[in-house]
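Contributing new records

If you add data, match the layout below exactly. Sequence lines come first and carry their own label; structure lines follow with theirs. Keep one chain per record. Anything else will be rejected by the validation script.
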Amino acid sequence: MLGIEETADDEAVRAAYLAAVRRSPPDRDPEGFRRVREAYEAVRDEERRLALRLFGPAPLDRLEALLEAMPDERRHVGPGPWLDVLRGDR
């Protein structure tokens, strides 16, 4: 989200954060600003930074991003596929 390398020092992290805030100011893009702020807080916390380096983002974070990218009309799954599964058709 911030576009920095894993080995970036604190000054580089801060500069990347300020540049990202200029791209997504809180008054114009509150959702983008929230993601930038969360990324900055994750990088500043040494334990979270190590976890991100070792394991990547949390699975639910990736699922949320996929859902946000999906059009609204595709988010709802009707009962048909579930009924097929329950009947053993699939």
